[in-house]
Specification:
408 residues; alpha/beta; Molybdenum Cofactor Biosythetic Enzyme, Chain A; Molybdopterin biosynthesis moea protein, domain 2; Molybdopterin biosynthesis moeA protein, domain 3
Length: 408
């Protein structure tokens, strides 16, 4: 009996939890984009480091404003000014610029648009509330707090925050080493003329390189391996000695020349082979020495779907991500009929859109065969049809999973 898609994904993530945690290294902030934090990042300072003005305006004390809505101007404070020894006479206001430090005793900053200037001083036209337009010290980040937890992917916004803290170096996990190769006598490297009438280009290995690059992995590309059991076995051994994860394309089906599964059985162990999912039924998962193994189907769409749904979460877990967010799916109506056979979870390619009535709906991208690569070109989501569901009629509710950054 085939594993369900959910059972297969659970087994894969359980295997990831049992592997040795990745080692860490220290990198410069400029080199930390998309890396994974190996330890919590603690803020060494407050941000802002001092009370400062949120805009150009005038600093006032509430007690002064209550006595008079017209106050003479005392002085001006610019961003970067040292106001340690500032003297601020009572019953006066101070002109202040955005980002400038707010003096001790200030209750509010009144924006210049709510004032009128004359020879007598500054007239305040709007009501004033305590704390108006003052950015308090530590309001954004407090000293000693965890700014970024362990196991977090470092995005541009996160790194920008760390730059405001003056942090120049970070402890991150080392990049996951992933070895890949394709199998098949029919394959021709991209850029070379097809070797025969029955040859095809090795697009899967090209695609895997792109996907792994986007996931910030260190790639060990072993090229194309012929349908020869000895060569495939040697390639798997070499890959397992160099990498944390081995990914192959092709050779895990039931054909006479599909030798990858046989070699895996000889070198390591197979956790499972074949899943009740479409496309991607002939997916193999196991282990060779200390490296985990994913054997992807040879059809290009099957390769992409299984990588996205099964290999991507595995790589994130092995890379040190601690909190894998659950898949976010929506329930929407389909605006087209969908063909589906009972027995496998189906990942059809669709387009989530807003119809004329302002409602979300999904439509199919057309043919869904595992060789129809263009089914992905216009798609922005997977239409996930349950294992025990059959054909779907227009107007029925279906589950939709929007593509994440990997396919954008």
């Amino acid at each position: 009996m085939l594993l369900t898609f959910e059972q297969a994904k659970c087994k894969i993530l359980q295997a990831a939890l049992l592997t040795k945690p990745p080692e860490s290294e220290t990198v410069q902030l400029f080199d930390a984009l998309e890396r994974i934090t190996a330890e919590p990042v603690i803020s060494p300072i407050n941000v802002p480091g001092f009370d400062n003005s949120a805009m150009d305006g005038y600093v006032v004390r509430l007690s002064d404003i209550k006595q008079s809505k017209l106050l003479p101007l005392s002085k001006t404070i610019f961003a970067g000014d040292d106001i340690t020894n500032l003297y601020w006479p009572e019953h006066t206001c101070i002109r202040i610029m955005t980002g400038a430090p707010v003096p001790h005793g200030a209750d509010a900053v009144i924006m210049q648009e709510d004032t009128e200037k004359s020879d007598a001083g500054i007239a305040f036209l709007a009501d004033v509330k305590l704390g108006n337009n003052i950015r308090r010290a530590g309001e954004d980040v407090k000293k000693g707090t965890v700014t970024v937890p362990k196991g977090e992917r470092l995005s541009i916004p996160i790194l920008s925050t760390l730059a405001t803290l003056g942090i120049s170096k970070l402890a991150v996990f080392k990049k996951l080493k992933v070895a890949i190769f394709s199998t098949g006598n029919e394959l021709t490297p991209i850029g070379e003329p097809l070797s025969s009438f029955a040859s095809i280009y090795d697009s899967n290995r090209f695609t895997l390189n792109l996907l792994l690059t986007k996931l910030n992995c260190e790639i060990i590309d072993l090229g194309i391996i012929a349908d020869d059991p000895t060569k495939i076995k040697q390639a798997l051994e070499t890959a397992s000695q160099q990498a944390d994860l081995v990914i192959t394309s092709g050779g895990v089906s039931v054909g006479d020349a599909d030798f990858t599964k046989t070699a895996l059985e000889q070198l390591g162990n197979i956790n499972f082979w074949k899943i009740a999912m479409k496309p991607g039924k002939p997916f193999a998962f196991g282990q060779i020495n200390n490296a985990l193994f994913c054997g992807l189907p040879g059809n290009p769409v099957s390769t992409l779907v299984t990588f996205y749904q099964l290999v991507q979460p595995l790589i994130l877990a092995l890379s040190g991500i601690e909190n894998l967010s659950s898949d976010s799916t929506l329930r929407v109506k389909t605006a087209t009929n969908l063909k589906k056979s009972i027995g496998r979870t189906d990942f059809q390619r669709g387009i989530l859109q807003i119809n004329a009535q302002g409602e979300l709906e999904v439509i199919t991208t057309g043919q869904q065969g595992s060789h129809i690569t263009q089914s992905f070109n216009q798609a922005n989501c997977f239409i996930i049809l349950e294992q025990n569901r059959g054909n779907v009629n227009k107007g029925e509710l279906v589950s939709v999973e929007l593509f994440n950054e990997l396919l954008k």
